UniProtKB/TrEMBL annotation:
One of its GO terms (molecular function) is zinc ion binding. SUPFAM superfamilies: RING/U-box. Pfam families: zf-RING_UBOX. The keyword Metal-binding applies. Residues 9-63 form the RING-type domain. The lineage of its organism: Eukaryota, Fungi, Dikarya, Ascomycota, Pezizomycotina. Keywords: Metal-binding, Zinc, Zinc-finger. This is RING-type domain-containing protein. InterPro entries: Znf-RING_euk, Znf_RING, Znf_RING/FYVE/PHD.
């Protein structure tokens, strides 16, 4: 199993992209848990078909059966729930909780957006009123909660690396 700190495709050793626009190999996570560059995986599948091998292609690292739908879907365009389901099962509960918490205070999001859109230079760098102080306190609470989720995720990922 390739750990989350893996930065290169295990097949071609090219750097894996964190986002599609970044360049580099787009990482694809197979059902067996390996992370392989999309181009390498496509080439592997194409060579499988070209060699006339029976059955479905397998993972080039462990030979587990591949789901070809992984190669032809843009993961970023999937609904968030489906994206979370592609994560390792140990990480999914933390990701679900994190997303639910992030979506839990839409009123605060709207309030921050409105302030930033309407704020003048002196509003940002000058003294602020009770309303802004309250909004900043709620943002700090949210930031600290995200740090808790991040630490929980790091703990799970560290445990997965030692397994």
């Amino acid at each position: 199993m390739i750990g989350p700190d893996c930065k290169d495709c295990p097949v071609c050793q090219e750097e894996l992209a964190k986002i599609a626009a970044e360049g580099g190999e787009i990482p694809i996570k197979t059902h067996c848990g390996h992370i392989i560059g999309k181009n390498c995986l496509r080439a592997w599948v194409k060579s499988w078909d070209g060699d006339g091998k029976p059955g479905s292609p397998t993972c080039p690292l462990c030979r587990a059966q591949l789901s070809l739908s992984l190669l032809y879907q843009d993961i970023e365009s999937l609904p968030l729930v489906e994206q979370i389901e592609l994560l390792p099962s140990e990480v999914q509960p933390i990701a679900r909780d994190w997303v639910a918490y992030a979506r839990s205070d839409e009123a605060l999001d709207r309030e921050v957006d409105a302030f930033l859109l309407e704020a003048r230079q002196e509003d940002i760098y000058g003294c602020y009123g009770v309303e802004l102080g309250d909004m900043l306190a709620r943002l700090e609470t949210r930031r600290l909660k995200f740090i808790e989720y991040q630490k929980a995720l790091q703990t799970v990922l560290a445990g997965m690396q030692t397994d």
